[in-house]
Amino acid sequence: MKKKLKNIPVKTLLIAFALLYIIPLLIIFTNSFMSQGEISRHYSSVYDAFDSGLQGQTHYVEYQLIPDLISLDQYGTLLFKTPMYLDLFLNSLKLTLPIVIMQTVIGAAAAYGFTVWRFRFKEIVFCVYIIVMVLPFQATLVSNYIMADKIGILNTHLSIILPTGFSPFAVFIMRQSMKDIPKPIFEAAAMDGASHFQRFTRIALPLSKGGLASLMILSVADCWAMVEQPMIFLKDTSAEPLSVLLSQIGQQNIGLIFAASVFYMLPVVWLFLYGQEHFEQGIKLSALR
Amino acid sequence: MKKIILSLVILASLALSGCVANPTKPSNELSIAAFMDSEFLRSAAKKYEDAHDGVTINITFYAGEERDVPKYSQIVNTALMSGKGEDIIDVSTITWTKLAEKEKLLDLNGLVILDSTQYYQNVLDAFIYKDRRYAIPLCFTFETFLFDSAFTEKEPSADFTIDGLLTLAKKYPDNRLFNGGGAGMGQTTLAYKLFCLDFGNYLDIETKKVNVDNAQFISLLKNIQTLAGRLEIEKRGDTSLIRQYLVYSPAMTSNGTTDYANMFFMTNEAGQAAFNTFGFLPAINANSANKELAADFIQYLLSQEIQTSPELISCPVNKDAAAELAKLVFRDVSAGGYAPDGFDDNSLEQNIEKFNKLTERLSLVQNTDRFISDFVTAEMERYFQGEESAEQAAKNLQSRLNTYLTE
Amino acid sequence: MNKSENRRSFWFIVPSLLGVSLFFIIPFMMSFSYATMDSGGSFVGLDNFRNLFAGDAFRLAAMNTFKFMAVAIPLNIVIPLFIACLLNKTVRGGWLKTVFMSPLVIPSACVAFFFQSLFMSNGLVSHILGVNTDWLQTSAAFPIAVAVYVWKNMGFNLVLMLAGLANIPKEYYEWASVDGMGSTRAFFKITLVYLTPTLFITFVMSFINSFKVFRELYMLAGSYPHESIYMLQHYMNNQFSALDYQNLSSAAFVITAVIALLVIALFVVDKKSEFGEG
């Protein structure tokens, strides 16, 4: 009996909290179907000619879920008048895919290494990894830049892909996940004659699916949203990813921001939903262990 | 953030090349970095080349519009920080005090001779920083205000500090106080002008001290708020007491219509008034290999011959040049029959005298640090829009300026 | 494992090690040279560091960053923990998890836009209160910054904790209630204990993200925001723009040193607790 009574306020609290997240999503989606003029009317700071009699006075922001007039104006402008959009999308892909692949492969391998390698100063090395991982990007940015220049990859996508691909964060996440794998499993496999590589691919990887999924989700989200590195390492505006365009729209042309955000989010959302399945499975598997 | 691209380009070269600039041998080639394209500079350079055999002058005009200022600033900064850059740098739109502190600009004392009788010395001296002369203005303009002559008789001893204006405003409630000459003068603009007059009280760039959170600043804001209704915003009565007037040179006095009798400056308590420089503002790169040539060219730009060129749109710093310009214009004006009756060479001489006397009070140069001007005007704007109280504005501005200066 | 096997396992780490050294560690060491030079290129020893601490800006930034972390990180752990416990009981988590994770996909520009529309002078909050205040220019800026951070990052911590909670066998709680343990004690003795590894990760993630929130804050309030949210990232970003590489390197070094100490301390604690558990 007590549980049922408890449930109602708990549920209400949860739903109220969830609204904080649902509403912005809804607004982004529905407002993307408003015309640019309508957007600037809702969010502008002064009343303009439309609302006569109140001209010049402060106009408070109006949130509106349902557009006055459903219009594909924003999408149209994005896709046709600024035709770079698809190129930028491709650029985002060009950056994200290699980085995620690098991080996963190199990170998982290193995580396995850290799990099974025996060395007195292993933890010190890992400690250094964590320090590098935690540093704010401004601290390492210039180092990356100088190195990229020395190697000669500046102004190419590689200058971002390489440093980010080696990110210690991937190693950290994978190692946390692999830590949970009971040592006896490895030892048994070793006794059965399995090589390190086999132990890695047949045991460690499958048993750390949760970590892999986490890593991929985070990595994709991060890379897709990268703004500072592309602006600094890539001089060509044509090589910039989508995220940079969005940050500029935010400054200049508010009217397009919702449609642009929808475009930006769609691929990642799709990936999330797809990946969440595996994420759940991975968690369940590790629980079964 | 795009500016970071340029800065990092040079950081890389710093790292790779090892930051020691090799002193090169002096040559006969002078390079100049200029912000805006200027016919004056082009023709002066050409004349110099003709007069001096074998010397070539290369001028690069980097930008041209208001919005290019950050870009130009970045380019100059990057070049100088890496030990490169042209011999003469136009510092007209950048914060040259910071460059001076990093010893990227040369002290011109001794290199360029400035005879105090020949120039408007107070204008030149306003650019002294830490007892050194880094930049030399070639010309200047200033704003005066013209008091409506109908009121001059009524208020012969009117005082044009902010308090004086307030008294006037109270005394003549039916008249508009200011007429901004068409361009209008909003509250923020006026408040900022007054702020700059007392700039030294609020900010000490050399010691990085800020003192804005005080009664003086707060009363400045509140006073302008009071005066606000008396600016161009509301139309009240036909006559405005005070008209804004921009003076370019004594040449303007040569047609006899300038009303020196009713001209006044907005001054601070010490009686100082502010002026603006126009166009090319030369400084010499500390790493330049052609220092003497550069100094000589600057000296040439200050000479009477060059300072009378018509392309120098504002008042030349060379006194004789200014007088000569006035006479030239007068000649044209009277030849065309436009000179007012009774205005002759004598009156012109008198006008020139008055002008020189008037300009003696100019001793403050307008702030060029765009960060500071942005912070101050934004904060003032917020106050005038009613978004924050005067005390809050003072507090916010104090902390923001302090953070900026102590970074 | 014999020696050669051990050496072979080392090779798994090699690619990562090479990359991290090449792109992070080595250039970082190289940049230390700048921290000891002045803008003219001559060696000045620890002068830059002395000037760094003498300047108000750096001290303000450091204090604010510390304050921010002290407030925001615990919130970012406690709130999701609370929600996770609630969700765990009601079991109907699926779609809620997705919802709470959504900020990860929303672009920073959009997040900044929303918060701006709430807190600017003609925003929702001003509307409700009937005033005309730009809240980001008042001391409310700090709570707003914390709110941005928690809103954006809570979701991921929530999912992690849900996973961690799911891993605790229900039997433990049953045994505990049989033993007469109240739910509060059960929380502390069972939940928190078995959640420790999860809490560790969420702490690390929260710490990293507390630096990343700079992006949204920059879009909201610019390079020189209100004094309560001017943080180390702002300081460093401005040094970038001003090309003050010396100051930047010294600041970066100080920050790295502090972080290193923290991490080492955390490590020591972690190892000790592992030993304690045997």
Compact overview of the structure:
In chain A, 74% of the residues lie in helices and 0% in strands.
**What would CATH call the class of chain C?**
Mainly Alpha
Q: What is the fold-level CATH name, i.e. the topology of the largest domain in chain A? A: MetI-like fold
Q: Note the overall shape of chain C.
A: globular
Helix content class of chain A: over 70%
State the fourth-level CATH superfamily of the largest domain in chain A: MetI-like
Structural class of chain C: mainly alpha
Ends distance of chain C: 22 Å
Q: How large a portion of the residues of chain C is in β-strands, by DSSP E? A: under 5%
Name the poorly predicted regions of chain A. none
The number of helices of chain C is: 13
How far apart, in Å, are the first and last alpha carbons of chain A? Answer: 35 Å
Radius of gyration of chain C from the CA trace? 23 Å
Query: What summary fits the major beta sheet of chain A?
Result: none
Tell me how many strands of chain A there are: 0
Q: Return the CATH architecture of the largest domain in chain A.
A: Orthogonal Bundle
Mean pLDDT over the residues of chain A? 79
Order of helices and strands of chain C: HHHHHHHHHHHHH
Using brief descriptors, characterize the structure shown.
A: mainly alpha; MetI-like fold; 74% helix; C: 278 residues; mainly alpha
Q: Can you lay out the helices and strands and say which pair or pack?
A:
The complex is a heterotrimer of chains A (289), B (407) and C (278).
Chain A: H1 2-31, H2 36-43, H3 73-81, H4 84-116, H5 122-134, H6 137-151, H7 158-165, H8 168-179, H9 183-191, H10 196-207, H11 209-224, H12 228-233, H13 242-251, H14 257-288
Helix pairs in contact in A: 1-14, 4-7, 4-8, 4-11, 5-8, 8-11, 11-14, 13-14
Chain B: H1 3-17, E1 29-34, H2 39-51, E2 56-61, H3 69-81, E3 88-90, H4 96-101, H5 121-125, E4 128-129, E5 132-133, E6 139-147, H6 149-154, H7 162-171, E7 176-179, H8 187-197, H9 199-202, E8 203-204, E9 209-210, H10 215-228, E10 240-247, E11 263-264, E12 273-277, E13 282-284, H11 291-302, H12 304-307, E14 315-316, H13 319-335, H14 345-359, E15 362-365, H15 370-384, H16 390-405
Parallel strand pairs in B: 1-2, 1-3, 7-10, 12-15
Antiparallel strand pairs in B: 3-13, 4-5, 6-10, 6-11, 6-12, 6-14, 8-9
Helix pairs in contact in B: 1-3, 7-10, 8-10, 8-15, 10-16, 13-14, 15-16
Chain C: H1 3-10, H2 14-35, H3 47-54, H4 56-90, H5 94-101, H6 108-119, H7 124-129, H8 141-166, H9 170-178, H10 183-212, H11 214-221, H12 232-241, H13 245-277
